[in-house]
Amino acid sequence: MGKGTSGASSNQTSSAKVALILVGSSFGNVFADDVYNHGDYKFLITSNDGEKRHVTTMLIGLGGIPVIDYWLLTAQQSKRLQPLDDNLYIVANKDNIDEFEAWANDKYKKRLWCNEATKFDREYLNTLQDVAALVKSKGLDKDFTHLCIIDGNCCFSPDFNLTRIIEHSFIRDTDAITTFKMPKPSSIAGKLTNNTDKVVVHVDPNANSNPEVFAIDEAVSPSDAGNIPEDSYLMGNVYYVHANSVSALVEAANDKENVSISARFAAGSMVDFFRKRLKEGHKVYAHECKHVLCLNTLNQFKFADSFFKFYASQVRKAIEDQKQKHNDTNMAENFKTEFSATERKKKEMYEKYEKKLSQTNHIIPVYVVKQELARSTLDTDQIMSEFESHYATISQNQRNVTLTKGKSGAMQVQPQEKKYTLPQRFCDTSTWKHQPVKQHSVFTTTNSTYGLKAPSPQTMPGLFAGINGSFTTHFPGLYKSSGFNTAKTTSKVHKSLDDF
């Protein structure tokens, strides 16, 4: 047990709750600059008059669904976070709070919180300061509450399991971070992260899973990223702060040195916080995650959006395969398709079916359960490798996106209608009219039968030769001179064989 949690009583641990904090207060400066210089994606900039130019990363759509909805869906599967209406906090800044209000319904509108201390002309937003201000405002440092902090500038693959991180950290009673293997520089994911800072995490190499963190390096600039070994672990964007460490988090936010040490990116303050905890002798554990999709630049957004669409297509295929398999194997046991089922047996089988669904998850709707069952049969590593092999060949027209507003007011990204270009012979309608081309004079002569053109396949010839091409009294020509289809081949290869 870590140094900071040794004084925690068993009563406190049993009564502790976990609060989920989604940090969406970043302006996305680099993203906004890329979008501003790219005419096709200016709709992602939702700044009003008098506001700083920004992109609300948590509300942009990946595969047509806002990023924040993916986080909420995986949060609903964790029993520690229930009821989510009481344990959820969404941090916004004063420029994008109106966009979150347009997205949120009555259920989540009360969970929005804006840091009034954020200034309009700040170059970056400090994640640690925003979280600390939220903790003081909501009194989370007074009651025994663990914090699960998620930075909205990144997103994991759809099979990300937040429950595993919360349960392991809750049982171990320590702080925890997420890590992922550094992508290969030659891969598309590696090339997309060339312009972002990287934080190397050193973990116990002998641990099978969820190893202890030995050290966290300072953020490495893109110019020095080439010196990082390929098998290194990088720091992710999901953090678990134990209740006994919350007060230290608030103190670190007020530390002026900590505020100015990582001005390049907003999450750097969280990196410095965990580095300080390690130096003080507290234990921190790491949870390895796969396929982290950053959303700091326009190209990273295009890649993530295309991957989520590709993954959704694989899920639909898996669901259809399961339907087919279910029909092939369980038709006799299905209350809808069994031939000799009585009303009582139908009711029993229906209740058994409903009980099976309810045991899968008591919170997620049935259609989401089907998606989760389908995802369990998918190999995300294989899907990612297959997607990367095809991503380079995707045309720019297929990557274009348009903005629509859903029923909930969320910003959703959907594909544009495909624009096909007609061949030039079809552009002018006057060319559609049949214009016969004059043939060679040998075909129009009437001097002899040899000058006649062979009948076309559209007209049945009045006279034709025998099947062996022998001369007849009506048509003294070979079968090949007729349009009538016989058993004799017209292949030049077979003709040479016949002659031989």
Secondary structure layout:
Layout: H1 10-15, E1 17-23, H2 29-36, E2 61-62, E3 65-66, H3 67-75, H4 84-87, E4 88-92, H5 97-103, E5 112-114, H6 127-138, E6 145-151, E7 154-156, H7 162-172, E8 175-181, H8 188-192, E9 200-203, E10 213-216, E11 233-241, H9 246-253, H10 256-261, H11 268-279, E12 284-288, E13 292-294, H12 298-329, H13 343-360, H14 366-375, H15 380-391, H16 396-399, E14 401-405, E15 411-415, H17 424-427, H18 492-499
Parallel strand pairs: 1-4, 1-6, 4-5, 8-12
Antiparallel strand pairs: 2-3, 6-11, 7-13, 8-11, 9-10, 9-11, 14-15
GO cellular component, one term: axonemal microtubule
InterPro entries: Nucleotide-diphossugar_trans, PIRC1/2
Keywords: Cell projection, Cytoplasm, Cytoskeleton
Q: Count every beta strand, where a strand is a DSSP E run of 2 or more residues.
A: 15
Biggest sheet character: 9 strands, mixed
- How many structural domains can be distinguished in the coordinates? 3
CATH topology of the largest domain, by name, is: Spore Coat Polysaccharide Biosynthesis Protein SpsA, Chain A
The CATH class name of the largest domain reads Alpha Beta
CATH superfamily of the largest domain: Spore Coat Polysaccharide Biosynthesis Protein SpsA, Chain A
Instruction: Provide the β-strand percentage band.
Output: 5-15%
**Residue ranges: pLDDT <50 for 5 or more in a row?**
4-9, 119-124, 258-266, 360-367, 399-416, 460-466, 475-479
Mean pLDDT: 72
Counting DSSP H or I runs of 4 or more residues, the number of helices is 18
GO biological process, one term: axoneme assembly
Family: Belongs to the PIERCE1 family.
Subcellular location: Cell projection, Cilium; Cytoplasm, Cytoskeleton
InterPro entries: Nucleotide-diphossugar_trans, PIRC1/2
